[in-house]
Design brief:
The chain has 625 residues and is an alpha/beta fold. Helices cover 64% and strands 10% of the residues. It is built from 20 helices and twelve strands. Strand 7, helix 16 and strand 8 form a beta-alpha-beta unit. The two termini are 52 Å apart. It binds adenosine-5'-diphosphate and magnesium ion. The site of adenosine-5'-diphosphate (ADP) has 12 residues, from helix 11.
Length: 625
């Protein structure tokens, strides 16, 4: 049964709201101080604007009541209208420019998350926990409407709501503390109920979003060029259509439920507003009829009742929103701090390699996370300097896992891996990676000019070296035939729009067959020219002639290198110094091809089966010719 992902668990973070706010502030201070300055300016300007708005009518009225001269009346009107005009325009301006800095900061956070992902220990990447956490982190900073952006808005509005609450509470309290208390309680109750219902609604939304996700997957599948073949030949249309329809039906049900809860929400809102305003007006009207307050005071307090309510609502919603968003942002910060099992700082200097490199596996066992069985088990093995080792075995024998261990992409669960006698954990892993050139079993290239794939670190690549490795890899003729040569863009070409994008930009673009792309990968490995070469089934996508060409040249391009060549074709490795036959995570037999055949063991049996098959195939082929 698949393990539950953290996404389904209740969201939690070790950081509390204050720590998250502190971390965000710290980040803004480091990368974009203007975000903070604008927040403070916005708080002050908004508070001023609200105070002008509150006071405008009562002040004008009170000037009239006191029968002040016309000039004073005009002065008051001018002061307040200008005050409102200036503060609201400044506020609008600040809000417009605030967006830019906040977005930049969010992009910075997204960039940090990306850097973590590409830089983290490869062992992290293959765990579902890390995958889940990275997804959550990306979501919390990945969009312009993401929490990383909205938290600034929330903080600012919480601050000005609090300021307004204090000022208005004071004004209202001066008139009648009891009335203020009653309105406070009613507003708080109303806002809390609303939030509770919102929360329930959010639960519904989550389910709907999951449905949306599934529906999008189906739509994606329908538009997937590769899947197009499967869909047609295996008649999958009906299945997709039915599933899509059932998803739509479920969504409809959920939306119905939402409508009911919205209706309840509106009802509660109306009732609370009625009670609160009714109470306010009743007390104020009684006071004015008894002449305990003037008309201007009546206006002031009426505005204060309305305003006070909105401040209380604002505070409660702001706190609620910040608390929720801070959970996601807290998870973002935790994601950045996920421990690195590999050493990426400091470490011993790499051995010079003057005498070549020797890699030793000492009782190495590896078990994938969440797996119940060792993928490789108790392997002891030495790859001698300049030795050409072949690793053969059936699918699932553990060959790729073994090379991932040698490459330092995974660390053994048990046992140690040594480079020239030193545990590889002592080296900086980034340095260790410089030793290797590799062709991986599964591959795809950058959608970029071919030279960027082959020589990614070398903007001005070495033409002579490039020609040599392209010839070695058997891809030179193909590249020479492309109109843009090495500057031609590779496109996996799955989507027409991709092609159009390149063409519109006047770029030469090409697709490559699996075999051609595999040769490009081989050229890349040879161009890097690391002292240790690892090839994981590098001929799987090649035709037999190309495969044979490669074997012929293998010795030439592995001279002065330690190399590991993996294949499931036993006969393909005769040119290696030593063959390791893997089965079920163990090295079952080892030796040269001849010595293994003489042994009449598992290798010999399997070779027998395979050669009979290939023999037959070859005979059939020659019959056809
Ligand atoms: N990421 C992974 N998570 C869990 N199990 C894996 C993973 N990758 C490979 N395995 C398992 O480890 C075993 C060895 O796989 P692998 O090293 O890829 O074999 P080979 O390269 O010889 O075909 C297989 O049983 C495979 O299912
Ligand atoms: Mg493999």
């Amino acid at each position: 049964m698949p393990k539950k992902t953290t996404g389904e668990k209740k969201a939690r973070t070790k950081y509390n709201v204050w720590q998250v706010i502190f971390k965000m502030t710290q980040l803004a201070w480091k990368h974009r101080k203007s975000v903070l300055y604008i927040c403070i300016a916005l708080i002050l300007v908004t508070a001023m604007q609200r105070i002008f708005e509150l006071l405008v009518s009562p002040m004008i009225l009170s000037t009239v009541e006191t029968k002040a001269p016309l000039s004073k009346l005009m002065g008051t009107i001018l002061l307040f209208t200008c005050g409102i005009l200036v503060t609201s325009s400044v506020k609008q301006y600040l809000e417009t420019i605030a967006e830019h800095g906040r977005l930049q900061l969010t992009m910075q956070m997204l960039n940090n998350a990306g850097k973590k992902y590409v830089g983290t220990s490869y062992a992290n990447v293959i765990t579902s926990d890390f995958e889940d956490r990275s997804r959550i982190a990306f979501n919390s900073v990945g969009f312009s409407s993401s929490y990383a952006c909205t938290i600034w808005y929330d903080l600012v509005s919480l601050a000005w709501n609090t300021l307004g609450f204090i000022v208005f509470g004071f004004v209202l309290g001066r008139f009648n503390w009891l009335l203020m208390g009653a309105i406070l309680i009613l507003s708080a109750a109303g806002a809390t109920i609303k939030i509770k219902l919102d929360y329930a609604d959010e639960g519904n939304m989550k389910k709907i979003r999951k449905n949306f996700g599934q529906a999008w997957y189906l739509v994606d599948t329908m538009y997937d060029q590769e899947m197009g073949k499967d869909i047609r030949i295996f008649h999958m249309q009906q299945w997709i259509r039915d599933l899509y329809q059932s998803l739509l039906n479920t969504m409809r049900e959920w939306y119905k439920k939402r409508e009911t809860s919205w209706f309840c929400l509106d009802l509660i809102d109306v009732a609370v507003t009625f009670l609160r305003n009714g109470l306010g007006y009743f007390v104020l009207l009684t006071a004015i009829s008894r002449k305990t307050i003037t008309l201007s005071e009546f206006l002031l307090y009426t505005a204060a009742v309305g305003g006070f309510t909105s401040w209380v609502n604002g505070i409660i919603q702001g706190v609620h929103s910040i608390r929720r968003h801070s959970i996601d942002l807290g998870q973002y910060f935790e994601y950045l701090e996920i421990k690195e099992p590999f050493r990426f700082e400091g470490g011993l200097p790499l051995p010079s390699g003057a005498q070549g490199y020797e890699i030793t596996l000492d009782h190495v066992t590896y078990r994938y996370p969440d797996s119940e069985k060792d993928a490789v088990s108790d392997i002891s093995l030495t790859l001698h300097p300049y030795e050409k080792v072949a690793v053969v075995g059936l699918n699932g024998a553990g060959k790729t896992t073994l090379v991932n261990l040698i490459l330092g992409l995974l660390d053994p669960t048990n046992g140690t891996l040594k480079l020239n006698g030193i545990d590889i954990r002592e080296f900086n892993r980034k340095d260790y990676y410089t030793l290797f050139s590799a062709v991986f079993q599964s591959f795809d290239a950058l959608q970029a000019p071919l030279y960027a794939t082959i020589a990614p670190l070398d903007n001005e690549y070495d033409q002579e070296k490039m020609d040599k490795v392209l010839s070695f890899a058997g891809i030179k003729d193909k590249i020479d035939s492309l109109p843009g040569g090495l500057s031609t863009y590779y496109s996996s070409g799955q989507f027409d729009y991709e092609k159009k994008f390149f063409e519109d930009a006047n770029m030469n673009v090409t697709k490559l067959s699996g075999g051609e792309l595999q040769r490009v990968m081989l050229a890349r490995a040879l161009y890097k020219d690391g002292p240790i070469l690892i090839l994981d089934e590098p001929t799987a996508a090649l035709d037999p002639i190309a495969e044979n060409d490669m074997y012929q040249q293998y010795n030439a391009f592995t001279a002065q290198k330690t190399s590991v060549f993996i294949s499931h074709r036993l006969a393909s490795t005769r040119f290696c110094d030593r063959i390791l036959f893997m089965d079920n995570g163990h090295i079952k037999e080892e030796g040269t091809h001849e010595s293994l055949l003489q042994k009449h063991g598992a290798y010999a049996d399997l070779f027998e089966v395979q050669s009979r098959y290939y023999q037959k195939e070859t005979e059939e082929m020659s019959d056809e010719i």
